[in-house]
């Protein structure tokens, strides 16, 4: 369905939102891929590499939290669970 905005500012907001949605979607996808990679490394008992990936995940999750992509509690919960998986594998 296509929105038919009459006001110029409303038309601009539609295009801005569309662009921001694409950017947010790509950021979320990147995080999901990193998490999958981390879990694969943990399952293969490559803890040193997994630890490095976990640092990158932590940095990106906190950046996503600052950009209001995720709630702070969700970020804390995700990091806690991933860290627990790593510690359990060691």
Automatic annotation (TrEMBL):
One of its GO terms (biological process) is translation. Keywords: Coiled coil, Ribonucleoprotein, Ribosomal protein, RNA-binding, rRNA-binding. Residues 47-74 form a coiled coil. The keyword Ribosomal protein applies. GO terms for cellular component: cytosol; small ribosomal subunit. GO terms for molecular function: small ribosomal subunit rRNA binding; structural constituent of ribosome. The keyword Nuclease does not apply. Belongs to the bacterial ribosomal protein bS20 family. HAMAP family: Ribosomal_bS20 (MF_00500). Binds directly to 16S ribosomal RNA. PANTHER family: 30S RIBOSOMAL PROTEIN S20 (PTHR33398), SMALL RIBOSOMAL SUBUNIT PROTEIN BS20C (PTHR33398:SF1). This is Small ribosomal subunit protein bS20.
């Amino acid at each position: 369905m296509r929105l038919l905005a009459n006001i110029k500012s409303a038309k601009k907001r539609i295009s801005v939102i569309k662009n921001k949605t694409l950017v947010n979607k790509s950021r979320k996808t990147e995080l999901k891929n990193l998490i999958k990679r981390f879990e694969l490394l943990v399952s293969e008992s490559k803890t040193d590499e997994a630890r490095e990936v976990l640092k990158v995940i932590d940095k990106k999750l906190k950046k996503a939290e600052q950009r209001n992509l995720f709630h702070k509690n969700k970020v804390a919960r995700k990091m806690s669970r991933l860290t627990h998986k790593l510690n359990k594998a060691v």
